[in-house]
Sequence to fold (150 residues):
Amino acid sequence: MTATFVPAPPLTVPRHVTVFVNWACNLTCRECWMYGDSSADSTWLEEVKRDNISIDMWKGILAELKAAEPESPNTIYLTIMGGEPLMHPQLVELVRLAKTTLPNCNLDMSTNATLLSRHADALVEAELLIVRPGGAPALAAGADVEVIGW
Fold:
């Protein structure tokens, strides 16, 4: 009996990219690493909390991910984070650009959901696939939490 070596297929690992699009937040949740009790000694937050990622920087990130697609056909998992991403003044445009540039990416956003009702229709139109509440504070704040796509 002759043994035949069959090489294993190459491992594919999904690419996960998390982008903090802003640092501002509308809540001060006690357990939050940025705005909660543990942030009391922070010196950097005051300097950056009004900063938002620019459209040009976002386009640059998307272009780099797009350029790598032929070499790595794995699904791109792109997570929008922040402080509270729904406070970014151009959030809907960021989502539209991501879905246009990377139509097959798995795009999601981590949010406390308290501002979701203001943006829900526009985010559905922009094809944001997953909106998940950041946790109990959003529910405790009385937010209307609804999964707007899956």
